[in-house]
Amino acid sequence: MSNIFDKIAEDRIQEALRNGEFDNLPSQGKPINLDYWASLPAGIRAGYMLLKNAGFVPEEVQLLKDMETLREEMSSCPDQEERLAMQRKLQETQLKYNLISEYKKQKK
């Protein structure tokens, strides 16, 4: 007989299915590529999963998101001075991204 934790987990999964909690998930119906996760040591894999689930991303990923947001804001900003300030911020962010990327390349 399976242990009690397996039974509890299975009951919770079945309940979630009945409640539709698995409906309309991102990438639903698409295969999951586990190659990347499988190549990581188990200790690192757990840490990465915790960070990912908590919404943390590597700094360079956040910088790319910030740059895209700045570009979008600049395109719709009517104030010339404000656009110039955003342009400077975009350049600073791009520089920081480039420095981090170059540093990581050199570490390899």
UniProtKB/TrEMBL annotation:
Signal sequence, start to end: none
Pfam families per UniProt: DJC28_CD
Domain of life: Bacteria
All copies of domain DnaJ homologue subfamily C member 28 conserved, residue ranges: 8-74
The protein's name in its UniProt record: DnaJ homologue subfamily C member 28 conserved domain-containing protein
Organism: Desulfosporosinus acididurans
